[in-house]
Write a structure and sequence with these properties.
11 helices; single chain; alpha/beta; 11 strands; D-Maltodextrin-Binding Protein, domain 2; Arc Repressor Mutant, subunit A; globular; 3 domains; 7-stranded mixed β-sheet; HTH-type transcriptional regulator YhaJ; transcription regulation
Length: 306
Amino acid sequence: MLDALTLGQIRTFVAIAEAGSFRAGAARLLRAQSAVSHAIATLEAQLGLTLFDRSGHRPTLTPEGCVLLEDARAILLKVDFMRARARGFGEGLELELPLVVDTLFPLPLAAAALRELSQELPAVRVRLSVAPLGAPLAALQERACKLAITVGGDFRDPRIELETLMSLRFVAVVAASHPLGQRAGEREAVRSAELAEHLQIVLEDPSPLSEGRDFGVLSPRTWRVSGQDTKLAFILGGVGWGRLPLWAVERDLAEGRLVRVPATALGEQGETTVLAYLAHRIDDPLGPAARALRENLLRHAGARGR
């Protein structure tokens, strides 16, 4: 009987489990509730077990249903990946290529890859957005872009494949005129308690993916800003301290406008290394332009990392 299982039944099972009710699952699938109920009843009969406990106001997964839900999701991911790959074989050149880049990623490197794309495929328009934290991944989840570059591994989604591009060095910095800047000049480790006495400039996530979470925040006093340029301007202006990618502050450090903060809680001498990833959905095929840009980015990032 297991050979009689259909993808429609499996999709119905997952939709109801995720939506929380047969009615909501039916609405998600654009099917009648009676058809959805029949599909689940048939699936349970074929499996020889009960997937949902229907005794309450809302159906809840049985212990067996919870286990099989993971299997069902895995099956659908594989099927969607196969379909996407098949569609990609015959897909024509994109008219437009949407790309979202993490604000922490070096834009000159992205520009070099995009310049080559423009030379190779001049008819393709590129729509580029730069956004922090969870926004690149959220854009992929919402199908607002084909490719995204994200920094750090804090956000994951089984529908999205991540390919390592390069490692990025992050440093804690402050204006030379700031009290912490003068303290940093003594070349002694700065403790967390001392950092907590000063305002920290922090990037704000426009997506809901980091709701209730902070990354590298050590001070109870924070100002939230929407972009890296604003964060750098505030730090240069002596408003507070913060962490920034080394590529963005090398010149300011070399010319003495900024100094490093040797904060022991943020790595040796206040420096940490974070990976940058190229991301795309496994169920959405990359067209010729997206594949070309992917190759360009991997090549340029690899050359930069050597």
